[in-house]
Amino acid sequence: MLNSRGLPLQNDSDAAAVARVLAGDTAAYTALVTKYKTQYARFAARMLGNREDAEEALQDAFVRAFRSLAKCDDPARFGSWLFRILANRCRTSGARRGRREKTFVRDEIALLDASEDHPEERAAWREEIQLALAQLDDDQREAFLLKHVEEMGYEEMSELTGVGVSALKMRVKRACERLRVLLQEANGV
Amino acid sequence: MVSEHEHDPFIEEIAGELRRPVRFDSTFESRVMASLDPSVVPLPVERKASTPWILRPRPFYVSPLAGLAVAAGLVAIITMSVMRTVPDTQLAANDPAPIVLPGNSTIIPVAAVPTVYAEPFTFIDSTARSVAVVGSFNGWDSTKNVLTRSADGVWSTTIMLAPGRYEYQLMVDGKLIADPTAQQTAESEFGAANSVLIVTPR
Fold first, then answer.
1. Model pTM?
2. Residue B122's domain spans which residues?
């Protein structure tokens, strides 16, 4: 049983929407896009480090899920299935980006979700976090985001990623240690 | 220790910042839906259209002697699997008739069918062209439980269900509606309420 605090991974209404789409009502897919776009946008943006790549990855994940909807074995867990597609897509994008450029380029993500009434220091801190996150290995970044940002349990993470619990714990541990070093260096601590 | 960071205030501060929502522009949904245009992306096919690889037939060849040996082995395995040996005192009143063997042991056939109950579904509409039941018991698959129409316009079917709570809807001519005869309903995010069926042991 999945018990994520962050991701609504099991839902009978998803099964109803999937049934409608499979019955030919393509418009019913809108409800699923609306339901999952905000939360999954966050994951994709944190994984990929910029909005354009995140939008492209999430749109592609929705299209792939639509094309393969008949293969979704448990429509009540559409959200979980979609998340796996998105996570795989982000890994592929990350690998492509890694070959293209190793260094993270200043991006708008850190500023994108900063509301106007926050001080500049806060925006700068967010940017430092995103820069540090981008320096993690893809596997470590994914594990850290699932554990600490999406607030998933290790069993649930293992189910989603296909990686063993021990390996995931190690990835999260190393990600935390690396983030601490990077951010303390950035702040001259 | 791999769990030392789970309640680390520093890590929690970082995670808190990263939990802030990221908003895509307002055209995102319409762009996704536009890319699902059936002329660009074929509509999903019904589940029945593709057969899982494990169920696909494959030819294989055996000699007559080997075939006989395999058949004999299968008979032995099936015979052993449908019988269990129990002391006389453990026989329930509704178990199948026991067979007494020499040596004071008793064998009974294992019940082949789990405890399920026949639940009738009926819908009256003489103008409907197709009626099916989709629900949590059949994966919301409109091909699994199709109702048949009688001469007087009554659509009906019977589904064998184990005790439990199920949500479902009727699909009438491709449109989902709540079952007008349902005793309970549950809210659904997608318009028509789900009907609720409670199957209890009898």
1. 0.54
2. 117-199
